[in-house]
Write a structure and sequence with these properties.
Archaeosine Trna-guanine Transglycosylase, Chain: A, domain 4; PUA-like_sf; 2 domains; six-stranded antiparallel sheet; 5 helices; elongated
């Protein structure tokens, strides 16, 4: 499948809303082509000086158009793709394009496994003292949580490449467990430091029955 491409150093997940400010001439042309021809385009992730995976995106709305031709647009991310070939400039266009393979992903997981993730997020937010909004076990998948659990850019890119929902939830669960462990240790250390910073009353030891 051939797609126009809009490379970014950002990661978007299937189902996610993608707000973009478009100011380069090549991408103004791309958005106008999407409006006129109802085509989709791809956002390959630029990471470690290369592009391999990305997400197909569909234009939903042009929110604002400025006198300069710049635009604020809203898109929605659809399917993950693997980039097979890249052309820096498509023939007759200003923007890039490439051959992509759309990846087959599943979104099936048990409520029990999802509940484990919810419990982990609740615990993480509690430790961090961050407001937590209850998550409905029936209404989320791994990708809807991806930006909310403290994954690094590299970890988000790893998650993007995992086709199985069960495997993605396992990946998230491992991250939550390790993060909660580290933060709990930090919190414990913080309390010890705070305690040692105050004057304390010590009970004097009675040495009369001590043998050496």
């Amino acid at each position: 499948m051939k797609l126009p491409l809009f490379p970014l150093q950002s990661i978007f997940f299937p189902g996610e809303t993608v707000p973009l400010h478009v100011f380069e001439e090549r991408y103004k042309q791309l958005i106008n082509d999407c409006r006129q021809e109802a085509i989709t385009f791809g956002i390959p992730v630029f990471i470690n000086n290369k592009m391999e995976y990305g997400v197909e995106v569909q234009l939903v709305e042009v929110v604002s158009t400025y006198e300069t031709g710049e635009m604020d647009v809203v898109c929605v991310a659809r399917q993950v793709f693997k980039l097979l070939a890249f052309d820096n400039v498509l023939e007759g266009k200003l923007y890039a394009g490439g051959i992509v393979k759309l990846m087959e992903y599943d979104y099936e997981a048990t409520d029990e496994k999802k509940q484990v993730i919810i419990n982990g997020i609740r615990q993480l937010y509690l430790i961090m003292d961050v407001p937590y909004t209850e998550i409905n076990v029936k209404e989320f998948n791994s990708f809807t949580l991806a930006h909310k659990i403290g994954l690094s850019f590299e970890q988000e890119y790893q998650l993007l490449q995992i086709p199985s929902e069960n495997d993605r939830l396992n990946f998230i669960s491992l991250h939550l467990t390790s993060t909660i462990t580290v933060l709990s240790q930090v919190e414990r250390t913080k309390k010890i430091i705070e305690l040692n910073g105050h004057f304390k009353n010590f009970d004097p030891l009675d040495f009369k029955d001590i043998e050496i």
